[in-house]
């Protein structure tokens, strides 16, 4: 009965061994929680690609451990429930989302290229906005993509940031080519997409 983000936080707090042993159960409860969230904010989406940040910065802070990763995990399940077709592209490929852990640097450009090559209607990027592999590449991808393939802007690209940047008093963006909206909890994702 826990909200989607809280459930994802709990799952990410479990040891790898426990997650492996309970994998089917954990997957099923995430799916049920996503469906409950979808009932509260019903929305039908078409073909959706998500770029999901699981870099070391997704570990969160001392006060909010693993929160960015939990929001990305919960959002992936919610988008899958709301979309006609869905594909998640993690910054480090993950065979099993239930087993996802923070890993590596933040390379959003390559999964964004893969997401756009999949021909979605909507691309949702969930990241804290601190891209470092290489810096600024994610903002160049949609600029080049729009110039070469999508001049009418048929593909919507939005960045949902689960981390508040205290230096800017707003969520950190990925550049002028991508709209950024703050996202506190995964279950608020569909409302944020409405904006």
Describe the structure.
With 195 residues, the chain is an alpha/beta fold. Helix content is 39%, strand content 18%. The chain is built from 7 helices and 7 strands; from the N terminus they run H-H-H-E-H-E-H-E-H-E-E-E-E-H. Strands 2-1-3-4-7 form a 5-stranded parallel beta sheet, with helices on both faces. Helix 1 (4-13) packs across helix 4 (67-82), helix 3 crosses helix 4 (67-82) and helix 5 (109-117) runs parallel beside helix 6. The relative contact order is 0.18.
Topology:
Blueprint: H1 4-13, H2 16-21, H3 23-40, E1 45-52, H4 67-82, E2 83-90, H5 109-117, E3 122-126, H6 137-148, E4 156-161, E5 164-165, E6 170-171, E7 179-182, H7 189-194
Parallel strand pairs: 1-2, 1-3, 3-4, 4-7
Antiparallel strand pairs: 5-6
Helix pairs in contact: 1-3, 1-4, 3-4, 5-6
Quaternary structure type: single chain
Q: Using the CA coordinates, give the radius of gyration.
A: 16 Å
* Tally of separate helices: 7
Low-pLDDT segments: none
* Percent range of helical residues: 25-40%
Could you report the average pLDDT, rounded to the nearest whole number?
90
**How far apart lie the N and C ends?**
27 Å
Structural classification = alpha/beta
Beta-strand level of the residues, as a percent range? 15-25%
Q: What composes the largest sheet?
A: 5 strands, parallel
Overall geometry comes to globular
**Going across the major beta sheet, what is the strand order?**
2-1-3-4-7
Strand elements, count: 7
Elements, N to C (H/E):
HHHEHEHEHEEEEH
């Amino acid at each position: 009965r826990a909200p989607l983000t809280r459930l994802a936080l709990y799952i990410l707090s479990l040891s790898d061994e426990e997650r492996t042993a309970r994998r089917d159960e954990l997957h099923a409860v995430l799916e049920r929680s996503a469906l409950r969230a979808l009932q509260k904010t019903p929305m039908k989406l078409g073909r959706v690609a998500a770029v999901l940040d699981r870099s070391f910065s997704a570990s969160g802070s001392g006060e909010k451990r693993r929160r960015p990763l939990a929001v990305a995990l919960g959002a992936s399940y919610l988008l899958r429930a709301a979309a006609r077709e869905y594909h998640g592209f993690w910054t480090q490929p993950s065979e099993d989302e239930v087993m996802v852990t923070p890993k590596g640097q933040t390379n959003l450009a390559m999964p964004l290229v893969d997401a756009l090559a999949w021909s979605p209607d909507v691309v949702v990027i969930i990241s804290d906005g601190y891209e470092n592999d290489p810096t600024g590449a994610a903002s160049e991808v949609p600029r080049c993509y729009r110039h070469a393939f999508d001049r009418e802007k048929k593909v919507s690209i939005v960045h949902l940031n689960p981390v508040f940047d205290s230096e800017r008093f707003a969520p950190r963006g990925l550049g002028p080519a991508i709209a950024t909206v703050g996202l506190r909890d995964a279950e608020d994702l569909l409302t944020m997409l409405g904006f």
